[in-house]
Amino acid sequence: MDTGKRAGQRVHRSLLGLHNALILSSSAILTGLLSHFIHRAHQLGYSSRGLGVHIIYQEVIAVLTLFLYLFATFLPALRSYRGYLLPLDLALSYLWLTSLIFSSRDYSGGRCSYGPPYFGHCGLKHAIQAFWILGFCMLLFNILTEAMMWAGHKASNRSALDKGNGVDGNGVHV
Fold this sequence. Notes:
Blueprint: H1 3-43, H2 48-51, H3 53-72, H4 86-107, H5 122-164
């Protein structure tokens, strides 16, 4: 691998590490805020039904992401890593988009004051929206970066295989 490709891989790995750390921190903050809401709602006597399905869904997605990105944060540091988390990023981006839509539907447009799980606390509810947006954007950037890493790895494997088989760049045997 030439130095230009190595430098590009290093930049992609650095970006992935940064994005993964931001996703991890967003999911940790979301887990804390949503857990606080759920705990407080139960203290006030809300049943699980009155709490709202959206907040439970959001909590599950935040906790799942927190668990997965505890490991994914360190994967780009491995030399053998070639963007293998692309399918996970694609799946999680849809889940995060759904959570973002749920939180926007529940807390925006004047519904913040009376939306579940309990009245008021609009600052915390808007913080939840902000961290869903941050995590979703980082997941989108991860998809692009992982796709570039994966494509670069496939292209380098193909060119190495072609050189080993006596095939030039145009696919002609020499």
